[in-house]
Design brief:
The complex is a heterodimer of chains A (472) and B (212). Chain A has 472 residues and is of the alpha+beta class. Chain A has helices at 11-14, 32-42, 67-72, 77-80, 85-89, 95-98, 111-114, 133-150, 233-236, 251-262, 270-281, 299-302, 327-331, 386-398, 458-465, and strands at residues 21-29, 59-65, 124-130, 153-162, 165-166, 169-170, 200-201, 207-208, 240-249, 350-356, 376-383, 423-425, 436-438, 445-455. Chain A is built from 15 helices and 14 strands. In chain A, a hairpin with a 5-residue loop joins strand 7 and strand 8 (207-208). In chain B, helix 2 crosses helix 4 (121-131) and helix 5 (147-167) runs antiparallel to helix 6 (172-188). Chain B is α+β, with helices and mostly antiparallel strands and 212 residues long. In chain B, strands 1, 2, 3, 4 and 5 form a five-stranded antiparallel beta sheet that branches. Classes of the chains: A alpha+beta (472), B alpha+beta (212).
Amino acid sequence: MSKLNATDIQGFVLRGYNMPYARYCFLHFTSAPNARALMRELLGVITTGQLWDQGKPQSTVNIAFTHKGLVSLQLPLATLITFPVEFQLGMKARGGILGDTGINGPEHWDNLWQDDSEDAEVHAWLAIHALSQEVLEDRFVYLQALISQTESAQILDTQDAAALVEGGKVTLKEHFGYTDGFGNPDYLGVCRSTQPGQGKLMPDGTWQPLATGELLLGYADEAGELPVAPVPHILAANGTFMVYRKLHQNVATFRRFLDSWSSRYGAGDAQAREKLASKFIGRWRDGTPVEVSPDAPDPTLTQDPNRSTNFTYSNDAAGTRCPVGAHIRRVHPRDAFGFEGRLINRRRITRRGLPYGPYLPEDAQFDELTDKTDRGVAFMVLNASISRQFEFVQQQWINYGNDAHQGNEKDLLLGNHGPGEKYVIQGDRNAANPPLICANLPNFVELRGGDYFFIPSITALGLIAMNLVDPR
Amino acid sequence: MGNQNGKVYGLTLLCPILEDDRATPSHDLQIRYYLAQLSTGPESPFTRSSSTHLARLVVMDDVVYVGAPACEEHLNSKYLIFETNCDSDLDGYMTELAQTIPDTLDQIWQHCTGYPGTRDLSAFLRYMRSCQIETTFFFAATNDKNRNETLAALQTQRSVAEFITAHQGMDPAQLQREFVAFAGRLKSAPLPKPAVFPQSAERSIQTGGHNE
């Protein structure tokens, strides 16, 4: 395999920045030539995947385009029609497949995503990540100036996101209290070293990186094929596709649900409550994998990259440690489907994201209005094929349970639940590990909008900026 | 794997479709048209046989040439494919179908070469036997129980899950009383109709598509 050119790949694709502040700006281009002028200005600004051996920068900038954005940039028709169909259609049109219906339907989305009028089309995602709020604001002012100098675009809306702060400390938690961000897949050539549990499971039980083409366009994927990509090749190579979803979290609903069911679980005390919370996800709230440490969280485990994602489910077919339908077991089944894990290697996704909205401390009071507070996670998925990877996971593993031997049951946390849906927690004879069926699942998470984006390489951004995209 | 898996029989028939230049439309199109109008739900004629687990009818025109470097090949005829998982075996199942839905069978198979019709049962069975090929794979969700046992098991699974949900944590003595009563009700409950999904099992999501 050829060595990846990290200076040609946007940094956001190759690594999670682990910066506590972010602002996602959603642009509408008002003039193609001026938008190209903006791209020329941005060429030297966009953060690449080059390693930060010289020290972490104060902030980063990245860009991605919707298909409508590429149309408005006047890419040649012969190029535009070669993008994968689901990207051309956009996320709203794929709602039937994704289960973005009912309370998750477009009529409940933020105005930014709901508005179908032509002058409100989202064309680009311009992302700033920063180490401090001040740096973030400075960077935003700088980008605003570039946009207005070039008279290229209108900022339709921005989405701020920030790591949750608990007791004055920046955390990796999301609003339900779970430490997030464990376990993204490793890809060949992308990481300097691989972490056990992150790539693909080999017959000898070791883990190897996934093929580069599962993340980046222009490289062979796990089937030895090139992912479906636009022409010309140079526009596609080193790029990827991003799914952006604003996921609202109903924190009061979650806490009420946890209180109500944990009072009937085991001893019904605070310990039982934490254990039940761990059974929903497959990780304790500090991130300890339940499969490895079923009885209690273990901070030494979460700190050890050789152990924090290094586990399989074949010795827990009954789900008495990690429930068969637990979130992480559904979306990354490892060896749970047999065949040494080979059935899942083309269904892996890379996740990015940060929470938005105020954190509600665990001991805080809440009421009927708490769920209305604008809080959740700005969730992003990176993958070479949105239909084969993200959409499959969402359709088959989140909103359906057949592969996980759960019939029609959905993922407890992310599923778009209908009336009377349930979640089964397998148990054993240990009084502290009883079975439980949680019934009448509410929707803990609601979709507030989003779309499908193309993250071009630096070369491709240059081609777009200089109007040199040539499909011939 | 042969045709038998536990109590379930995998029947696969490959029946050549008539080629007749004078037929308008052609016989394969006439089968397609008829099949397209058959119900695939509880009203399907195949549910009237008490031993159908699933039945699938496919018109196969030809093998598709996918371009070089593949070599171009063609079938000698168009075929009607009938695949079913059923109780009993070819003779038993096809006899039952010939007795319960003779008109449906004749409407479909009248377009096949050499089909004698359902009225002469022994000729009908001889014909079907000559079209049988070995079933090597079963539908993945097939178990080894007969159809009525499967329908009852699905009902039991749903009912027990509902019972547990409603009664978990109950005082043991009361739980036992409730369970005995529940088990009695379940035992005498009528067998659910095939291909009828309870509301809780409905799948609202759009299915199909090349990612599935």
